[in-house]
Amino acid sequence: MEPLIKTSNLCLAFGGVIAADNINFELHAGERLAVIGQNGAGKTTFINICTGYLAPSQGKVYFDGKDVTAMTPRKIVRLGLGRSFQLPQLFSEHSVRECIQIAAARRNKELSWFRSLESTVDAREVDETLALVGLSSEANELSFELPEGKRKLLDVAMALALRPKLLIMDEPTSGVASEDKHSLMETVMHALDERKVTSWFVEHDVDIVARYATRVAAWIAGKVAADGTPAEVLNNPQIKSEVLGT
Ligand SMILES: Nc1ncnc2c1ncn2[C@@H]1O[C@H](COP(=O)(O)OP(=O)(O)O)[C@@H](O)[C@H]1O
Ligand SMILES: [Mg+2]
Questions:
Q1: DSSP code per residue over the chain
Q2: Ligand 1, CB within 6 Å, residue ranges
Q3: How far does the centroid of ligand 2 lie from the alpha carbon of residue 86, in Å?
Q4: In which band, very low, low, confident or very high, does the pLDDT at 84 lie, cut at 50, 70 and 90?
Q5: Measured between alpha carbons, how far is residue 132 from residues 105, 152, 158, 211 in Å?
Q6: What is the pTM assigned to this prediction?
Q7: Closest protein CA for atom 4 of ligand 1
Q8: What was the pLDDT predicted at 5?
Q9: Which residues surround ligand 2, an ion (CB under 5 A)?
Q10: 47-56, 147-156, 184-193, 224-233 — which is least confidently predicted?
């Protein structure tokens, strides 16, 4: 089967810092990939290149068999590559329900000044997405009033409204109290399973990585230093000393 993501010889440097050092990487449908690595290792840069936010100085990115290297983020999203951000990108002056409506309308390219949101997006679809991430009772709250964990869920729900094949989540549990991280991931992973979405998430908490990933890739200095099952990578001596600090 063709990989969902394939990169060949991806390189990018910022001044003297090599943030992506000749990365050859593949991700297949059905995988749950956790990416680990110290701050500055290049995890976000790699995501930014794959999603069209940064252009590599060298190399190619293929999504679902198509060369997306020179495409805009908007176009790549429409092909089915969704993304959520370390700091959720919400429409803060809008309600939770409206945020999902806007995202769904964007998928349909139906956002227009001349039509109301209610008339462009199927209300049942919005209700289903709200229920899927457990935000039904917050539907009418303004998104900026939500606690961080629920803002993260709304960000994921907005990405799901675009019907992605793959969702890349950059530190979905950052900024969330440690006692709430597991229930957040439980909800997110259940939602992704329901919608049959392949996932790739950046995560620092080893317990969460071990629990939710089927594959782990460890980044060191712009390179994939280890890639395998959670047990293999989390017990790798180099990864333990250089990434996990144990
Ligand atoms: N837009 C940018 N301009 C200059 N340097 C950058 C930029 N983005 C990232 N970097 C540098 O690239 C390296 C990798 O950063 P990043 O991909 O954000 O790492 P991570 O997500 O693993 O913490 C770091 O040294 C960072 O300072
Ligand atoms: Mg980062």
A1: ---SEEEEEEEEEETTEEEEEEEEEEE-TT-EEEEE--TTSSHHHHHHHHTTSS--SEEEEEETTEE-TT--HHHHHHHTEEEE-SS----TTSBHHHHHHHHHHHHTT---TTS-HHHHS-HHHHHHHHHHTT-GGGTTSBGGGS-HHHHHHHHHHHHHHT--SEEEEESTTTTS-HHHHHHHHHHHHHHHHHTT-EEEEE---HHHHHHH-SEEEEEETTEEEEEE-HHHHHT-HHHIIIII--
A2: 14, 17, 19, 37, 39-45
A3: 8
A4: confident
A5: 18, 14, 12, 21
A6: 0.93
A7: 14
A8: 98
A9: 43-44
A10: 147-156
Domains of the chain: 1-79+214-246 (3.40.50.300), 88-163+177-197 (3.40.50.300)
